[in-house]
Write a structure and sequence with these properties.
- The protein is of the alpha+beta class and about 325 residues long.
- It has three domains: about 50 residues; about 70 residues; about 110 residues, no CATH class.
- The protein contains eight helices and eight strands; from the N terminus they run αβββββαααβααββαα.
- It has an eight-stranded mixed beta sheet.
- α3 packs antiparallel against α8 and α4 runs antiparallel to α7.
- The longest helix has about 70 residues.
Length: about 325
């Protein structure tokens, strides 16, 4: 029994060790294996073409983008195998033949109720005959006239009451609209005053934050590390030849002077050849570079754990967040 238990614990320990080794290997690969990129562009008189490639883990994972005058193509490869081919292979394995039975849509039969009508006699039901046995059309003419005059007088009084009620309602609605307008104007004025007060408080708060020495030190550190990151991420190698010319030789000379001022950027790795007698833009260029994850992590950790940056983050959490989000 103890031997079996010890064997199970040993297997679990081996699995955990293997899992830990895989995680460490993946972490080391991400941090120390660079992500390399390369871009190439070429232009002639009739067409142009461009190609960019990003690879990681010695090319085991790569993304290539090709574009130009004709079309654009994206090629993703894993272990040298195209991703589209892998998708087709997995889809073929998972594909199953489904057989369905034809079903007919049937509507439920509607319940039809039969309405019986009493057609006996002259079409008059017993419920329509009043208790005194006298119908409305059998009443005397004098009674009908008397009832009509009484109804007219009652209707006139009712119309008069309706007119008076309508006048009172009109005055009341007009007064309520005046009160509503007054209240809305007063509320808008109160909001305007509150906005001015809030703007003044916000201005004083941000002014104090910007002149704080901690803020200046944090911005300086972020700028320094950002410049280092750009130098690290930027291309390490430039190659290319460019032939350009404008209609006016003077304009060509001005462009050449501007390119000469930017010489420290490409440091002679890019050859620029002016053409003075015609308008042309041809050439090819290629750039290469790499990015190490450990460098990006180092710069990010140095910025985040700096005391001045922590002060700025705490200030935003305490004061600045409400004003930024408009709360």
């Amino acid at each position: 029994m103890l031997h079996i238990l010890w064997l199970v614990i040993k297997c679990i320990g081996i699995l955990l060790a293997v899992l830990l080794a895989v995680i460490l290997l993946a972490l080391v690969s991400i941090l120390f294996c660079p992500v390399r990129y390369r871009a190439k562009i070429q232009k002639t008189l009739e067409e142009w073409g461009a190609q960019g490639r990003v690879s990681w883990l010695f090319g085991l994972l790569s993304v290539t983008v090709r574009g130009g005058s004709a079309k654009m193509d994206v090629d993703i490869r894993i272990l040298g195998i195209k991703l589209s081919f892998l998708k087709r292979s997995f889809s073929r394995k998972k594909k199953t033949v489904k057989k369905g039975l034809d079903t007919q849509d049937t509507l439920p039969a509607a319940d039809v109720s039969v309405i019986e009508k009493d057609n006996s006699g002259d079409g008059v039901l017993e419920d329509d005959i009043p208790e005194d046995g006298i119908r409305g059309d059998d009443m005397p003419e004098d009674d009908i006239r008397g009832d009509g005059a009484q109804k007219d007088s009652i209707q006139g009084e009712k119309i008069q009451e309706d007119l008076e009620t309508e006048k009172e309602g009109l005055c009341r609605r007009l007064w309520m609209k005046i009160l509503e307008k007054y209240r809305s104007i007063r509320a808008a004025f109160g909001k305007f005053v509150a906005a001015l007060q809030n703007m003044r408080d916000t201005t004083s708060l941000w002014k104090g934050f910007l002149v704080d020495p901690h803020t200046g030190a944090a911005v300086g550190l972020a700028w320094q590390q950002g410049c280092k990151l750009l130098r690290h991420v930027g291309p390490q190698k430039w190659e290319g030849d460019v032939y350009f010319g404008l209609d006016d030789p003077a304009a060509t000379g001005q462009v050449l002077a501007i390119l000469g001022a930017t010489y420290p950027i490409y440091r002679g790795q890019l050859s620029v050849v002016p053409v003075w007698d015609r308008k042309v833009l041809e050439g090819k260029a290629c750039v290469k570079g790499r990015v190490y994850g450990i460098m990006v992590l180092y710069m990010a950790v140095r910025i985040y754990f700096d005391k001045n940056v922590r002060y700025v983050i705490q200030w935003f959490r305490k004061n600045g967040g409400n004003y930024v989000t408009g709360k």
